[in-house]
């Protein structure tokens, strides 16, 4: 009797083995082309031009002496272009290793949603891929070799990483972050703006301001530093150049207080900075009080310029609106950009200057 009861169990286990033994639909690594970086560019007609840059394994580099190769493809959508480019490739296209998505400025001016939605819906591109806006020739950026030797895609990623080339003015933005803000009326996007470099792949020009999914303005690099400080994104030291001295900002603590009076947002920012003196003019001496005063003046000037730009455009890139969410009715959420234009914003800087015990200071 016991043997009879064992047979159904054995048959069941064999059937389960047949079901679970599958890698039948997988492709070997050597039969896949891993995408390093994707570029999106507006074509001359209504179609889209998508750039792909593939890193090559060492075994394939001897033929052309490059560690990558580049392809471009026209399509009605990004998914259409990705499908069409497969007809050109001898191996499977694998976008799961994409490290960066570079969007040309002309395309970003028409709107990002139609061109980034594929990545969110299909999940073929990693959500932590960095996103940047390109001003210049997309073809040269994708076809030129990386000056420091990193593989395609990794160079772009390292450009923004805090443990590598990233500094506070380089505003690192990832795909999931961009997409989430496209549907958040309380928080506008601020995406790095890169221009083609003469000696390297690209250089930071500033940060592009978005209202919904379109570019409406731009912060320069100095204003971008204030953005990083006010939004608690300041991750490393940064040098601020002045007329008679150079000061390094090594730490900051920012406190934001908000209030709503008669429908008008009140935003008060208290920013404490720890700085060190790293250089000073020997011909034009300054004491520590004068250095702090000049730095405070410069920061106030930058903050005023930054808020004038963003408030005029109704672009709350700081996310201040999230602090008012509970004070507004859901029907009022879409009114926040207009409310931000008329918000009362004040800011104060408290500067602690260290390393001043040098002989050229009084």
Overview of this protein structure:
The chain has two domains: 29-219, no CATH class; 233-362, 2-Layer Sandwich (GMP Synthetase, Chain A, domain 3), CATH 3.30.300.210. It is built from eleven helices and 14 strands. The chain is an alpha/beta fold. An eight-stranded mixed sheet has the order 4-3-2-6-7-8-9-10. Strands 11-12-13-14 form a four-stranded mixed sheet. A two-stranded parallel sheet has the order 1-5. It starts with a helix and ends in an 8-residue tail after the last strand.
Strand content: 25-35%
Largest sheet: 8 strands, mixed
Order of helices and strands: HEEEHEHEEHHEHHHEEEHEEEHHE
Instruction: Tell me the number of strands.
Output: 14
Tell me, briefly, the overall form. Answer: globular
Count of domain modules: 2
Parts with pLDDT < 50 across at least 5 consecutive residues:
none
C-alpha termini separation: 102 Å
- By helix and strand content, what is the structural category? alpha/beta
Helix content: 25-40%
Radius of gyration: 26 Å
Helical stretch tally: 11
Mean pLDDT: 85
Strand order of the largest sheet: 4-3-2-6-7-8-9-10
Which short descriptors sum up this protein?
single chain, 362 residues, GMP Synthetase, Chain A, domain 3, 2 domains, eight-stranded mixed beta sheet, 14 strands
């Amino acid at each position: 009797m016991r043997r009879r009861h064992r047979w159904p169990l054995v048959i069941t286990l064999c059937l389960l083995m047949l079901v679970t033994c599958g890698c039948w639909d997988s492709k070997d690594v050597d039969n896949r082309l891993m995408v390093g970086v994707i570029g999106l560019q507006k074509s001359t007609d209504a179609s889209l031009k998508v750039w792909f840059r593939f890193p090559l394994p060492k075994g394939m580099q001897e033929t052309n002496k490059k560690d990558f190769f580049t392809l471009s493809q026209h399509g009605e959508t990004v998914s259409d272009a990705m499908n069409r480019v497969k007809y050109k490739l001898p191996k499977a296209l694998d976008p799961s290793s994409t490290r960066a998505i570079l969007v040309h400025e002309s395309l970003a001016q028409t709107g990002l949603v139609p061109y980034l939605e594929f990545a969110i819906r299909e999940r073929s591109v990693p959500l932590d891929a960095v996103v940047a806006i390109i001003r210049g020739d997309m073809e040269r950026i994708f076809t030129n070799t990386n000056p420091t030797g990193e593989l395609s895609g990794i160079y772009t990623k390292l450009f923004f990483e805090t443990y590598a080339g990233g500094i506070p003015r380089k505003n690192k933005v990832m795909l999931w972050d961009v997409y989430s803000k496209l549907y958040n009326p309380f928080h506008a996007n601020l995406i790095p703006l890169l221009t083609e470099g003469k000696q390297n792949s690209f250089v930071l020009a500033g940060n592009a301001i978005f209202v919904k999914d379109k570019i409406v303005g731009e912060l320069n690099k100095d204003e971008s530093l204030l953005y990083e400080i006010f939004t608690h994104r300041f991750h490393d030291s940064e040098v601020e150049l002045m007329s008679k001295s150079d000061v390094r900002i090594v730490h900051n603590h920012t406190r934001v207080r908000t209030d709503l009076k008669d429908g008008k947002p009140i935003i008060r920012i208290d920013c404490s900075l720890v700085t060190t003196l790293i250089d000073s003019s020997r011909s034009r001496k300054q004491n520590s009080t004068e250095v702090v005063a000049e730095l405070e003046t410069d920061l106030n000037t930058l903050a005023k310029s930054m808020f004038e730009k963003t408030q005029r455009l109704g672009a709350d890139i700081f996310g201040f609106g999230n602090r008012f969410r509970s004070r507004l009715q859901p029907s009022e959420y879409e009114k926040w950009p207009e409310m931000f234009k008329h918000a009362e914003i004040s800011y104060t800087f408290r500067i602690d200057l260290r390393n001043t015990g040098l002989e050229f200071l009084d």
